[in-house]
Every structure is written in C-alpha cells, then in structure tokens.
Amino acid sequence: MSNAAGHTVFITGATAGFGAAMARKYAADGAKVVLTGRRADRLDALKTELGDNVHTLNFDIQDQDAVFAAVESLPAEFSDISILVNNAGLAMGMGGADTAEMSDWNTMIATNISGLIAVTRAVLPGMVSRDRGHIVNLGSVAGTYPYPGGNVYGATKAFVHQFSLNLRADLVGKNVRVTCVEPGMAETEFSVVRFDGDASKASDVYKGMKPMTPQDVAETVYWATMMPAHVNVNTVELMATMQAFAPFAVHRD
Ligand code: NDP
Ligand code: 8X3
C-alpha cells in the first residue's frame, strides 16, 4: 500500500459528511486536495484547518458551465488531478411516487446524475492524457435495493453504479481506475437535507441503531484508491451492521 503523497484529490461535496471526512483523511496523508461545494464559509474553514495543500472551488454542481469553468480555473499546482471523488449528492423527500414533488426529482437528477457526469467529463481528459487517474463515485445501497420513497433517489444511484461500470469499459487499457462505493445508512447531513431541515425527523432515522460514520466511508474510499495500481476495485457495498434487507412486500386484501 502506498500513501497519498504525490496525489491531487478532487472531492465534490466537501463541505459536509463523507466529503469533509475524505478531505481530512487525504490531507492528513500528504495529498493536495481540491474541495468543492456551495457553502463558501465551510470551504474557507476547511482551508484554514487543513492548510496550504488545499484549493477550494465554490460552485453549484447543477450548473454544468460552472463545473467546466471551475475545473479550467485550477492553478497549475492543483490541476493534475489523480483522484476524483464524485461525492456531492442528495436525496429530497421520501414521499411516494404519486405525491412526490417534481422539483425534488429534478434537483436529484440534476445533482446526482447531471452534475456527476459533468465533473467526470471535465476531469477525465486530463487523467487520460497524463495516463494516471482514479474516479470514485458515491453510489448507494438505494441504487440496488428498492424501498418505499426511494423512487428517484435510488434510480439516480442505479445510474451512478452503471455509469461507473461503463466508464471501466471505456477506459480499459488506460491507466485510469473507476470504483463505485455504495454505502447504506451513515449519519451525516444527508437526512437533514432529505427532510428539508427537519432535524428531529432526521435524527429519528438513526434512533436506536448505530449508523456508519463519515470516517467509515472515507476509509473505504481511501482504501480503494491506495490499492496497487494493477488492482481496480469495481464496487464496494457497505452497510451498518444494524441494517439489513427488507422482505418482499405483499399486499393482501
Ligand atoms: P451531506 O448532506 O452531509 O453532504 C452532501 C455534500 O454534497 C455537501 O458537501 C453539499 O455541499 C454537496 N452538494 C449537494 N448538492 C450540491 C450542489 N448542487 N452543488 C454542489 N455541492 C452539492 O451528505 P453525505 O455526506 O451523506 O452524502 C455524500 C454522498 O453520499 C451523496 O452522493 C449521497 O447520496 C451519498 N450517500 C449517502 C449515504 C448516507 O447515508 N449518508 C449513504 C449512501 C450514499 P453544499 O451544500 O455546500 O453545496
Ligand atoms: C443513502 C442510504 O439507505 O438512506 O443513500 O437510501 S439510504
């Protein structure tokens, strides 16, 4: 196993949760990190905390022009991205498909799918031309196992899973690896966002069970990227020990 010195790691959604934990992990291990998100104050705080090896980019991933402009704007010392972590994403609502807000569905698609592919498209040519790279996409167990209210969120994560495999297909023979990391329940701001700022509904999600932590997921991403160069970890699914699978639903009269 190598360590992260000599890497430039571009992490989307670094202002909270998994992204912030990954920023700390890679920076502590000697990487340069490029941290993105919409909350500029949090990016500034991370820069103050983590020091000179940090460059921040403040943009909304739903704005594809802003994505390409942000990647173009990188100063030379941060432009040779060797690891891209496509982490920014969100769930909005848990209503049924017949009552869910179209605007929530559109925001999830614009962020989890359109934003993720834009960052990938902006960063990938540099990786291919340098013949060095690793893209880690944040999928979810929700992309594999359906649950009530998971409708469009789960479908966006199924896209992330398949996009990751298809990237592998396109990149075979090039020195660019692709991994999809697919966690289950982990306590971050995810549920606060999902329930539109309702902190008590969000904390109920994790009541009486031990969820995973952002550090657990950061360790997993780090592990996949630090495997020797001839190994590609395709997919990692991880869950809290206290979480498992539902039985099939059967409606009876
Ligand atoms: P958090 O809500 O804690 O963090 C989400 C991050 O995404 C924030 O930094 C946020 O930054 C960023 N983000 C969201 N929307 C945008 C946007 N439009 N433009 C730029 N950045 C954006 O959630 P998690 O850390 O839990 O989630 C990270 C990823 O992991 C997501 O893709 C999520 O779907 C996935 N995931 C989460 C699980 C969980 O249980 N927590 C389980 C499985 C997968 P800002 O608001 O500053 O823009
Ligand atoms: C988040 C995990 O189980 O809340 O992607 O859908 S779950």
Note down, in words, how this protein is organized.
- By secondary structure, the chain is α/β, with parallel strands linked by helices.
- The protein has one domain (8-238): NAD(P)-binding Rossmann-like Domain (Rossmann fold).
- 42% of the residues lie in helices and 15% in strands.
- The protein has eight helices and seven strands; from the N terminus they run βαβαβαβαβαβαααβ.
- The chain has helices at residues 17-28, 40-50, 64-72, 102-130, 151-171, 190-194, 199-205, 214-226; strands at 8-11, 32-37, 54-58, 83-86, 133-138, 176-183, 235-238.
- The protein has a seven-stranded parallel β-sheet with strand order 3-2-1-4-5-6-7, with helices on both faces.
- α1 packs across α8 and α3 packs parallel to α4 (102-130).
- The longest helix has 29 residues, at 102-130.
- It is globular and about 65 Å long.
- The termini are far apart.
- The model has no long low-confidence stretch (mean pLDDT 97).
How are the SSEs ordered, and which strands pair?
Elements: E1 8-11, H1 17-28, E2 32-37, H2 40-50, E3 54-58, H3 64-72, E4 83-86, H4 102-130, E5 133-138, H5 151-171, E6 176-183, H6 190-194, H7 199-205, H8 214-226, E7 235-238
Parallel strand pairs: 1-2, 1-4, 2-3, 4-5, 5-6, 6-7
Provide keyphrases for this structure.
single chain, 253 residues, alpha/beta, Rossmann fold, seven-stranded parallel sheet, 8 helices, 7 strands, binds NADPH dihydro-nicotinamide-adenine-dinucleotide phosphate, binds 2-hydroxyethylsulfonic acid
